[in-house]
Each structure stands twice: as structure tokens, then as C-alpha cells.
Design a protein that fits this description.
- Helices cover about 25% and strands about 25% of the residues.
- With about 375 residues, it is of the alpha/beta class.
- The chain folds into 2 domains: about 5-190 and about 350-380, Alpha-Beta Complex (Quinone Oxidoreductase, Chain A, domain 1); about 205-325, NAD(P)-binding Rossmann-like Domain (Rossmann fold).
- The strands form 4 sheets. Strands 3, 4, 5, 8, 9, 16 and 17 form a 7-stranded mixed beta sheet that branches. A 6-stranded parallel beta sheet has the order 12-11-10-13-14-15. It has a two-stranded antiparallel ribbon with strand order 1-2.
- Helix 6 packs across helix 7 (about 220-230).
- It binds NADP nicotinamide-adenine-dinucleotide phosphate (NAP) and zinc ion (ZN) (2 copies).
- Oxidizes mannitol to mannose. Provides the initial step by which translocated mannitol is committed to central metabolism and, by regulating mannitol pool size, is important in regulating salt tolerance at the cellular level.
- Keywords: Metal-binding, NAD, Oxidoreductase, Zinc.
- Its cofactor is Zn(2+).
């Protein structure tokens, strides 16, 4: 029988979990790991109430583990898909959160990159096989055996819980450094939304000045795609269902033009103008009008993960040798590169910082695309452990 979440590991942890596909969040006690080597000893120490004293002498973390106090966690639309079991893969109780930032509290004896007090983050991955072809090319995100930050299992079979919680523990390989110029609240969404758009812009060579890049869906991912594409020097067109986002997209986010996807005249006038499109839409939508916007050899890169398959018309692809592709987050090395790029070029998400007890309302608003453009939970100041 599986261990109780709060007894699975020796380190107490606290967060907010959703218990069933209703998607309603409530407080949740669980636990996080430390070094197996000291597990037995630690258990005895807890029993004799000597834990605090002996923590001075015995390391609590695995040799390569970094433990950190979570201060902020972004709310990705994937958290909503998962909370409501829209992909049919959720197991409950589920603590989401893969845009996690905080400050290091402990490091294992063999940690080389980090020390106590460092500002760090964890994105969507906490482990991978480290030996497959993808892992050896810094593409842990395409490792067949990766371990997701939440709703997944570590190699020892225990469950992963995400950043809607007070603490995180991860192997240093999966921890990134947050540069000084980047506040921890604004840095959080970079760890999923940021890398998810940065990686395909780079890989599909849409990062060249003067290219015409479309961004479909102006949400968490979409607004970061606009900002990164502009930082690369592209001419950016937003394709949106929300007319009210136009003014801000152009005046504040720096987009060059704005199309309403349901306005056939606008879409027709822009036909064949784009070198590439980053599609971040979370729901089912038509691809035909988007393929029509591409020039010959243009690339439509799918990033959104709707719960149902989309219809892919083939003829418009043939006529123009167009490409439809997909992309999943990014590797750890590239995530660090993206964070450093963001700090250097002042690419920051627009966030609405919320207390943890607002999370249920935030999810309702996210469902309605009513956020500019990412909710970030202020974990450090608002998550209080249950007595
Ligand atoms: P989000 O903040 O909710 O943004 C999605 C945007 O898509 C909305 O703001 C809305 O923009 C548009 N939209 C929503 N429903 C639509 C519909 N039915 N038809 C047309 N447009 C619609 O979500 P997000 O956090 O950016 O995530 C977007 C998607 O990417 C989710 O499915 C998420 O699971 C997925 N995702 C994938 C990866 C990856 O690695 N590939 C990583 C993270 C997230 P407008 O108002 O402008 O139309
Ligand atoms: Zn995400
Ligand atoms: Zn691998």
C-alpha cells in the first residue's frame, strides 16, 4: 500500500492540493525527501525530538539535492488542465506548480552550483534518465523517462508535488539560478511560459531580426512569445479572440499588429505574410486560417495542449511546403540561457500577484482568459501551515 503523503518522506511539507476533477483547491499536508542514507536515523531522531539539534550534524538532503523555500509560483494553464483532469492523466491529491522560485535553504554534500541563500527556480522537470541521446544533448525535456515536477513519480515510486507549497527539493541539475536583476515573482513564469516559447523561437530559427512572427493566443505563453520575439528583433503579429487586448498588445507589449482570428476580412488581408507562428491556444480551434497566414515554407509551431485533437487540413500545407510542428518546454541548459537572456534584455512577464487563498478564483478567471497575463502566487507571504 502507498504511504500517506505526509509520511512518505521525512521532511514535512505543506501546500494546496486539488482532490478530484472538480478542480477545487484546499490545504494539504505532505512530505519531501532528504538523503536516503540518513532516513532511518532521521526517523529515530524525530521520535526522540532531537531533530533540530541533530540537523546541525547530519545533512538532510541527498548529496546532489538542493532544498529551497518556495517564495513564488506561477499558475500555468497546464495546472488548470491537470487540476480538472482534462488530459485524463491526473492522480489526486495533486499539488500543481512548475514555475517555482525561492531561496536555497540546504544543499547536499556534493552540490557544486548552489549555496544556501542563492535565488533559484525549478520548472517542469525534476529528473530524467541522464543517459539517453536526448539527455546527452541537454534535451531532458525529450527524455522518454523524464520526471515531471508534479503529478509524476520519482524513480523510487514516490509522488512528485509541485510549487503550490512551502518547499521544494530537487537535484541541482534541474535547478536554475535566478540572476540578481530579475525579481523572484517575475522570474517564476519564465520557468514554463518563458522557456516554452523561447525554445521553439530559437530551434525553428524564428529568432532572426526582421522576420514576421505570429503569436496565437495572448495569455501566459503568448505574451512571453511577443516579448521574446520582439527582443530577437522580429515583427510580431498577435492573433487573438479578444478584441479588448489589442491596444495593450501594441502599446504595452510591443506587438506590431493585431488580428482578430474570427474576423475573416482581417485574416484574409494578412494571408501569406508570416514566416512562422507560435500557437499557444489552450482550447480547440481552427488551424486552416493560421496555415493561410504563413508564407511558403512557413512554420506553424503548436505549443498549446487542448484536451481534444485538432483538425489538420493537408492541402494548404502541400501548397507552399509549410510545416506544422510541436515543442515541449526546453532543456535545463537552455532554460538557464533563457533566464539569463531575459535578465540581460529586461524581458519580464506581466504578472498579477495573488495570495494562495485566491487560487480557486484565479483558476476560474484563467478559464475565461481573464488575466494579464500570468497569475503568480505569493507563497512566501501567504501560505500558512495548518496547525
Ligand atoms: P492561458 O494563459 O490561458 O492563454 C491561452 C490563450 O489562448 C488565452 O488567453 C486566449 O487568448 C486563447 N484561447 C483560449 N481558449 C481559446 C479557444 N478556445 N480558441 C481560441 N483561443 C483561445 O494559457 P497558457 O498558460 O499560456 O497555456 C496555453 C496552452 O499551452 C495550454 O494548453 C497549456 O497547457 C499549454 N502549455 C504547453 C506547454 C508546452 O511545453 N508545449 C507548456 C506550457 C503550457 P486570446 O484571448 O488572445 O484569444
Ligand atoms: Zn506550464
Ligand atoms: Zn534521458
Amino acid at each position: 500500500m502507498a504511504a500517506q503523503p505526509e509520511l512518505e518522506h521525512p521532511r514535512k511539507a505543506f501546500g494546496w492540493a486539488v482532490r478530484d476533477p472538480s478542480g477545487v483547491f484546499s490545504p494539504f499536508n505532505f512530505s519531501r525527501r532528504f538523503s536516503n542514507k540518513h532516513k532511518m536515523l532521521r526517523t529515530k531522531l524525530i521520535a526522540t525530538h532531537l531533530t533540530n539539534r541533530f540537523n546541525l550534524f547530519f545533512r538532510e538532503t541527498g548529496e546532489k539535492d538542493v532544498a529551497f523555500k518556495v517564495l513564488y509560483c506561477g499558475i500555468c494553464h497546464s495546472d488548470l488542465h491537470k487540476a480538472k483532469n482534462e488530459w485524463g492523466t491526473s492522480t489526486y491529491p495533486l499539488v500543481p506548480g512548475h514555475e517555482v522560485t525561492g531561496v536555497v535553504t540546504e544543499v547536499g554534500s556534493k552540490v557544486e552550483k548552489f549555496k544556501v541563500g542563492d535565488k533559484v527556480g525549478v520548472g517542469c522537470l525534476v529528473d530524467s534518465c541522464r543517459s539517453c541521446q536526448n539527455c546527452s544533448h541537454n534535451l531532458e525535456n525529450y527524455c522518454p523517462q523524464y520526471t515531471l515536477t508534479y503529478d509524476d513519480k520519482y524513480k523510487d515510486g514516490s509522488i512528485t508535488y509541485g510549487g503550490y507549497s512551502d518547499s521544494m527539493v530537487a537535484d541541482e541539475h534541474f535547478v536554475v539560478r535566478i540572476p540578481d536583476g530579475l525579481p523572484l515573482d517575475a522570474a517564476a513564469p519564465l520557468l514554463c511560459a518563458g522557456i516554452t516559447v523561447y525554445s521553439p523561437l530559437r530551434y525553428f530559427a524564428l529568432d532572426k531580426p526582421g522576420l514576421h512572427v505570429g503569436v496565437v493566443g495572448l495569455g501566459g505563453l503568448g505574451h512571453m512569445a511577443v516579448k521574446f520575439a520582439k527582443a530577437f528583433g522580429a515583427n510580431v503579429t498577435v492573433i487573438s479572440t479578444s478584441p479588448y487586448k489589442k491596444e495593450e498588445a501594441i502599446q504595452h507589449l510591443g506587438a506590431d499588429s493585431f488580428l482578430i482570428s474570427r474576423d475573416q476580412d482581417q485574416m484574409q488581408a494578412a494571408k501569406g505574410t508570416l514566416d512562422g507562428i507560435i500557437d499557444t491556444v489552450s482550447g480547440v480551434h481552427l488551424l486552416l486560417p493560421l496555415i493561410g497566414l504563413l508564407k511558403s515554407h512557413g512554420k506553424l509551431v503548436m505549443l498549446g495542449a487542448p484536451e481534444k485533437p485538432l483538425e489538420l487540413p493537408i492541402f494548404p500545407l502541400l501548397c507552399g511546403r509549410k510545416i506544422v510542428a510541436g515543442s515541449l518546454i526546453g532543456g535545463i541548459k537552455e532554460t538557464q540561457e533563457m533566464i539569463d537572456f531575459a535578465a540581460k534584455h529586461n524581458v519580464k512577464p506581466d504578472i498579477e500577484v495573488i495570495p494562495i487563498d485566491y487560487v480557486n478564483t484565479a483558476m476560474e478567471r484563467l478559464q475565461k482568459a481573464d488575466v494579464k497575463y500570468r497569475f503568480v502566487i505569493d507563497i512566501g507571504n501567504t501560505l500558512k501551515p495548518s496547525p
